[in-house]
Amino acid sequence: MQATSEVKATRVEQATRIETAELVVEECPLTIMVNGHRSISLLCSPRDLEALVIGLLLAEGTIATYTDVASFHLDAETLIADVWLRDREVIPVQPGERSRASGCGLGAIYLDVINTCSPNQSSIHFTSEQVLALSQKFNKMSEIFLSTGGVHSAALCEARDILVFHEDIGRHNAVDKVVGSAAVQGLALADKLLLCSGRISSEMLVKAAKQSIPVVVSRSAPTRLAIDLASRLNITLVGFARGARMNIYTHAERITTSVSDR
Amino acid sequence: MQATSEVKATRVEQATRIETAELVVEECPLTIMVNGHRSISLLCSPRDLEALVIGLLLAEGTIATYTDVASFHLDAETLIADVWLRDREVIPVQPGERSRASGCGLGAIYLDVINTCSPNQSSIHFTSEQVLALSQKFNKMSEIFLSTGGVHSAALCEARDILVFHEDIGRHNAVDKVVGSAAVQGLALADKLLLCSGRISSEMLVKAAKQSIPVVVSRSAPTRLAIDLASRLNITLVGFARGARMNIYTHAERITTSVSDR
Predict the structure, then answer these.
(1) Under an 8 A CB cutoff, do A105 and B29 touch?
(2) B220 burial class (0-12, 13-18, 19+ CB within 10 angstroms)?
(3) In this structure, are residues A129 and A241 in contact, taking their beta carbons and an 8 Å threshold?
(4) Catalytic residue among B28, B104, B157, B196
(5) Which residues of chain B have a CB within 8 Å of the CB of A31?
(6) For residue B48, which of A18, A164, B89, B258 sits 20 to 30 Å off, Cα-Cα?
(7) What ipTM was assigned to the predicted interfaces of this complex?
(8) For residue range B186-195, what is the model confidence (pLDDT) as tens digits?
(9) Which sequence positions of A are flagged as catalytic?
(10) A108 touches chain B (CB under 8 A)
(11) CB of B59 within 8 A of CB of B51?
(12) Chain B residues closer than 8 Å to A79 by CB
């Protein structure tokens, strides 16, 4: 299944009306089975689905590392991913059950993350020039976005280059894909920078925290809850990284500038 | 709880580094109880929460109209919304159970919607000038977005004006808020135009279809699945409505232009 396809459309511009063909992004429902039990169903872009499945299973805590996976098979027609783990006794938690179990109210998500993630220990540094250069390269890489305007992208970077890059119709899926891809490649995440095209909500921040990613950068805005979590978990959170500027919301000590270096 | 708040940030621009205060958008977890049973937990912007709850219960099919609701109480501290229905026997379906019940594979969502929504019957028309004027007004109304960059917005419109407008950190929540608000006000939706700031995925289209909204307009891109559903359900889907242009993907007959009118 292609990531994009052409559809007929009527383009209206001022008073003119033209029949045209427009490139649009595909969206498909993916179902993940773990050890023969239904785990998650979600809508996504039909590309790099093994990366998405592995990233999701890591995010959900169903697996701790890629080596927990014994086999992966994707049925390209039904889009059912059939995953068997080394431990065949594992039964995936249903999203509904998980949310029932986690209690009510403002404190629940916060406490759950604070309790399961320890503060990031990384002493890695990036210069602001590196962050902005990575961000500019990232914006140019998004081929599906540039052709359709319909996707988000995410990337894992070291100081001088982008190592893993993925796109998806879902902000969260794009991050799950880069995390899953890194896991398959055996790439350590504890010294990497995560670039995201979309807004950084608490759920996005939690995904980074669970993988011990020390620096999260977006060209969009963060939410207050994401900033609070980043502050508590010792994660550097950067928003509005565009052109020659950025806002560092938490743990600015990991981003050095020429001025502060002198 | 305010929709925005100030946080300390380090603004980096070229080689300068300034300590500043930035306005960011709040994000909070809302829990909905129906007839004493837990229904949904979600993250949202803490404003217009009754509209969000009513819109969500309509979208989920827990209620058919606002008159099904006997009482609504929101605890402002825990953000637990306690909803009692006229029919106290109704037990809300858990999102997890719903997705388990709906079967696997590409056909499931498609068939579910095709089976539960009948094609839109509305013969309403809008001129392209009206659509673009509404769209321009909509872009200027988004005060939280303009100040924080962190939210999506949605609006319900008649030909000459915006009737209901809401913002939220979630694309889906913004639509649920306008639908819920309209229900509380007793506003009919079957002749209205829905404006969205975000991308139109299949889930967004389904929300409109369930409320019999005949025209959906976004300044962003639609997905292929949303286009297919709109085509089948006789809904007019417009994307990239910006400045003097737009793309009409389905049922273009509801949007007239001066040229086609002559």
Answers:
(1) yes
(2) middle
(3) no
(4) B104
(5) 104-105
(6) B89
(7) 0.86
(8) 999 999 999 9
(9) 104
(10) yes
(11) no
(12) 105-106
